[in-house]
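Narrative summary of target 7.
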Amino acid sequence: MIKKDSLHLLEFEKILSFIAGFANSTPSRTAITHIRPFPDRDLLEQQFGRIGEIRRLVQIRVPLRLSPFEDITPLLEAVRPEGAVLDHHDLAILTPFFQVLSALAKQLAYRNDIPLLKELAGNLTGFPHLLDRLEMTLDFEGNILDSASPLLMELRGKKRNLTARIRKRLEEIIREPKIALFLQDEFVTQRSGRWVIPVRMDSKGMVAGVVHDVSNTGETAFMEPLEIIGLANELENLGAEIKGEEIRIIRAICGEIRQAADAIHDEFQVLVRLDTLNSIARFAEELGAHAPVINDGNEISLREARHPLLMLLRNKGNGRDPVPLHISLGTPPDADNVMVVTGPNAGGKTIALKTVGLLLSMALSGIPIPADPSSTIPLIDRLLVDMGDDQSIESSLSTFSAHVANMAEILGKTGRRSVVLLDELGTGTEPGQGAAISCGVLKELQEKGALVIATTHLTDIVAFVHRTPGMTNASMEFDHATLTPLYRLQSGEPGQSHAIDIARRYGMPATVIDFAERMIGSREAEFHALLAELKEKRQRYAALTADLENREQRLDERERLLSRRLAEAEEAKREAMGKAFAEARDVVIAVRRETRAILDEARREKSRESLKKLDQVGAEVDRKLQEYLRDEKPSLAELSAGDTVFVKSLGFDAIIVRIDEKQQRLRLKVGQREVEVSAGDVAVKRGVKIKEPPLRRKFTEEPEAPHQLRLLGLRVDEALSQLETFLNRASAAGLGEVKIIHGTGTGALMRGVRDHLDGHPLVREFRVGEQHEGGNGVTMVTMR
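Modeled conformation, tokenized:
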């Protein structure tokens, strides 16, 4: 369990707030802000697995089909009581929710490469009947559509027609000379839902009708002529019938929602979970983050680790690229489990401490971290932090008292599966006593088996750590020439505060500097001189190591070059031997043909025995020939951009443009175009050159038209092999749209073809064939 106070000190809630910015709904944002570390390894790895599957969908350009949706929980609770009816404007909130559900259900239905996501959301239905009903009934603002029911469409049509008749008659009335004399103005309007004309107040008795309203000035009476009252009453009756039909429609929809309320709520929870995972995946893409390895031991090993908040500032253009952190603690036999970091003020000690704590909190919460994927962290029970100025006026605690109280609490809670982060050990009191207490704390934490990272400026603590087995010093590197911090953590050696050097750089009087140096004394001066000597040796050894690594790299390159040349020589030998055996085979065939002619003529038994021996020689030649001309598949590790390979599906050589080892695919240059093929479709080059035009003539040689492929009667594996070849040729030929004919049958071949097309790098999109194209037995493919 990690305390909320520790997460707050590490600014974990800022990470959650940024992730929440990717969410599509308020419930998703709320769920993200409540993310906490997982207590169970299986749940943690399941979370990382699902996030990884979402990111792979993004990489193949088929991200989860999520879009904004509202919190429907209050609506479901309101509709649950029997007979409850929602306002039609509230019902409109459900439409986007069902649309997102339906899109996800369709997207996940045919995929077999996302098992963890399908375990979570594979049973989504999207409630298509409710979605169809809502889309037919309501527009996006919640207004009821004419298409909600045939009766409603009929009643509204009658109302429109009757309204038009009333308006037309009123317009005729106001143009009649005997009426126009008494009108205030020539227009038709409505008052209290009735159609009226404006009559002067002093002439209202001259027009037969009913007054429904009077103007604010009192000079105009709005009258409904007697001859349209019957029509107006009929209009009101139609309005009442329409209202009744609308209520019936909404009541029926609410009834259907009530019956499915529990299932809808369950799918809503799954949608929120998917949205939360998708938000974390988008955050990981933003930072280029990875899931670390979770170990069962007590080891922290972070490589190329960066503080995520600094990276976010960098991405917004408000900061520079943070210096990567490399830190290793615990693990293998006899490894150190306590590290004390020293260095100058503002040198990055606290940032390093916060980076470790924040990345631990993120990783244990199922959030990928900005570090090398080889990084590993333990599944800990507690993360205990003492950081910052905890001085409290209310509780009458000084800074030192607050730190001591906090460390006492930490000591009481620490166990073997704990990580402890302590900032500025020994500060706030007399340095000697503060150092003594801090050393005792470090010793106690070590004996409890915790992993401890602490920072300090006190040399007594540094010396204690140096003498104690299982503890190690580390430092934040410092540029002595410019007197500026480098923000790099160096394990195995202590650092210096460089307070006097920094004071001198910023203009402190020489008399003050001289006095300070004398006061420090020779012992501390010798200590710092020793540190400087150790740092100089370490830098020299680092330079030698770098030179040795460069030499090893050059040797590796030479070995690869020699291996390639040896392979080329072997290939040349194979080709030469192949040609020789081919010539030999031709000779044998000629001799065999001549001998058979002699046999037919002579019919002698001895000749038959000679022919049998000759056949054996020919068979041996054929075997040798096949051995040297075999279809050898090269390893991707042996290939590089610019190499030439033979493409089986095309029948000639092509040049490699790019290699995708992860997807086991190659992008090749074929004439003036580029195509993408699987690694299994290439062999060693055969010297077969492309002829112009490269592929269109080859297509015309096929029995099928170049724009379509027939797979009827084939097994799925056979069909997919032909489909891959067909797509490669279609792409190289520059075809825009092609047809795949697979039939319906049991549906296995159809599903296999469409699964293969989904996310294929050469395919922009595909669709089911129209009726005239072959219907569901055909898939139409748009090439990239």
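Residues 8-127+260-287 form a domain with the MutS, DNA mismatch repair protein; Chain A, domain 3 fold (CATH 1.10.1420.10).
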